[in-house]
Structures are given as structure tokens and as C-alpha cells.
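During the practical work, I selected for study one protein's amino acid sequence and its C-alpha cells, as given directly below:
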Amino acid sequence: MANAIEWLGDNREKAYLLGYFVLILGLSLPVAGMVTRGYQEANLVRSLLRLRLLAGITLTQVSVAAFGVFIGLLILMSIDRKKRVQAALLWIGVLVSLVVITSQGLGPGLGDAAASSLWFVGGLLVGLVMGGGQKLLNFETLQLLEFRRASEGVYVLLFLVTALTFLELHIVYPDIFNVGASGVGIREIEGVSFGLNQEGLIQNTVTTGLFLFVVNRFIQYDADKDFFIIGPKASGKSLFLAGAFQEANQRAKSTENATPLNPSQDLMEMMDEFDRQQSGWMIGATGRGELNDLRFQFVHGSVFPTNISLAGADYAGEYLERLPDALSGAIDEEDMDTTLERLREGVDRADTLVIIIDCERFVNNEPLEISPYFSILQAAGDKNALLVATKADHLAEEFEEENQLEPHQYYEEFTDYVNQRLRQNQNINGLVTQVGDARIHPVYYQTKVDEQGNIVPMRDQQGNALTVGFESLLERLGRI
């Protein structure tokens, strides 16, 4: 049981995909059957379709053209790099539905459909144009294309078909319109003949609702999540963001056609300096009056991608104690300096606050300066929060000595150890309770002592600083 739960936690996307696949297969049959019965019972929809008679168009031509539009949109969705898997499942659902519908004697036969092939081609072209198919003419960006209109069009068509036939099947009403080649007329209605067909109502409501939910989930594009980092001065905020960016950048290099990270200029300047400082740290104290905007974004997941924005501000001086008043409006905007206003905007915009706990201060028994966090969380309202323990290498040494295990190889055990040690502090334990998340996430740079006796980061053959905890951090950000 524990292994199954652990697998679900590590492979949540795959589990969701498997569940949706089962739902698509299981729902295609009953929904297609409902659509068939709903069309047979339809009055208004069939009257609207009979408007074709005014233009001399056959029902086969209308059906084939509409199907062509749908296929055109689904083709573009299949090309979309973020929707290929979902489109493949919808293709299966379409094939199952076609088998059910044709087995009921509805829809054109193969001969009639072949005779109306030009109408299908016309509908196909309309679907391609509606879905943004003109982007296909740019071969250089073919692998990066997104066809959001195509996905939305697929959902709209499926929604209209299933919702209208559901209403036609379960709402009883008289035949109102009389449509023929000569024109449109209104029938005389004697008495009131409206009602509700309750046969299969509950089953069709459930299957239709689930089907539309799954399709809507499929067409949804990147959800956006904004994270903003707050912490006391010299607590490792900038190094934390640099480590997260390095991890995201390494992922992007190993992923074909990865989404750009869009780092801020200040972050890139900081990373360039770090690359040049091959033997030490790149970040000194921020000068008074300086404000560096550090941010980047990455995409978590491939089947159900989420855009993650991670941001922070590098500044001099103490601002945490003033931040609650800035958030609550107790300080007027004209009384805020640029840094305080930037912090307030970052917190307001964020979905989740990344709250820094400095392990070096904890080990050295120095003031943690985390008491403002409580007021900030109260002033921020319903924000989520993630507790991160920076400079966790100070606890890594203790862990290795006590357990004879290397923390970067036994990260889960090390995380348990860090949480146990940090929560011995009453303020940290109260903060964990306040946040409602029982797991503090430790991160650190692997370090060594150089010839001058300075603690410096270890690097791999490519010059990248060796870090611990940032890979799982990016995964956790995507799951919050």
C-alpha cells in the first residue's frame, strides 16, 4: 500500500492520464448512445438542420462538413506539442463514438459520405483555419507550436453536441417549427405539452457531466502559479533562487523544444558572475539602495503542464517587519520606498509565498528573525506558503556524522532529520503549524574548504555548482 501511494506521488501525471484514459473509454459508449437517442427524439435541432432545405443542401453534406471541421481542429490539437497525448485519447473516443452511431443506423453511409467528400475537405479546411493552421507554414517553429483555438474549438463542438442532445432527450416539448423547401412556418400548438423525460436522466447526467469535465480538462492550457520568496537579510534568498534556476536550466537543456525560462536581467547577471567565480561564491552584500529583480519561469509536467513563476528581490536592509503594514494598507503608497513597494507587489501577485529559514543561523544559535512571518501570513490572507531551509549543508554535516549516511544520497532521510531538528525551535514549530504544511524543504550547495580555508561550492566538470534538494523542490512547486 505504501509503495502504491509513493508511486502515485512520484507519477501523479501518469496516474491522471491513466484515469482519464479509462474515463474516455468508459464514457464514449454511453455518451454516443445518448447522442443517438437524443437526435432521434429531437425537434428543435432537427428543425434547425432542416433549414438546409432552403439552400438545397442534403443532410449528408451538412453532417460530413461538420465532421470535417471537427477533424481539422483535432488534427491541429494532435500537432500541438502540449496536447498530443490528450488528442490521441480523443481520437480513440471519436472512433468508439462513430462505431456506436453508425451501428444505430444514424449518419451517412460510406457511399453517401464518399459522394460528399468535397464537403468534408471544405469542412476540414475551415477547421484548420479556425484552429490557427496557418502557423504550420512556419517550419522553423513547427515543434514549438500551440493551437489553443483548436483545443477550444474541439471542446465547443463536443459540448454543443452532447449538451443539446441531452436536453432534446430529456425535455419534452411540441414540434414548433415547420421547415421545408418553401420556407419556415410555426405550427399551431394545442394545449400545453411540456414535460421532463426521466428515463435514464440520472445516468445521462452523470456520464454527460463527466465526459464534458474530462474534455474540458484536456483542452485547458498551462495553469499559472506564482511563487515569491521572502526572508531576512543574508538568509540565502539569492543563492536559493540561483540554485533553482540552475536546476531548471539543466532540465531545459535535456528537454527537446523546452519552453524558454525567461530569466530577468538581474538574475542572468548574477549567474554570469557565478560562472566566472569558479573558485568561490558570486554574491556579496547588496549595496544600500540597490534592488535586484530576480525571477524566471519554467514548465512543470508534460501531459498537464503548469507554468511556474519563481521570483524574489535582492535588496539591502530590513523590510520584513514593515511588510505586514504595507500589505494591510497601514502604510500609504507614497510613504513606501521602491523596495517595500516591490515586496508588497510580489506578495500580492503570488499564489504561494516561499518562506526562508536560515539553517546557518539555527546551528550557530543566532537570531532567526522569522517572527515577522506570522504577521505577513495574516496580512497576506489566503496565500499558500512553502517553508524552505537554506544553507542546509550546516545540518548535513551533523546528519552524516550521526547516521553515517551521505545526505545527498539519502535525501528523504535527511529531510526528516532537518524537520526534526528545526522543529525543536518553538518559533519554527509554530510557523509550521501556522502554514499548515508539515514539511520543511531543505536545500543547499555542496561545499568544500579551499586552500585559503574558505568554504566554497563544489562544481562538476561543466562548472555547475553541485546542489542538493533543488530537483525535488521544482517538482514540489509543480504539485502545490
Q: What stands out?
A: The chain has two domains: 2-219, 223-479. The longest helix spans residues 12-41. The mean pLDDT is 82.
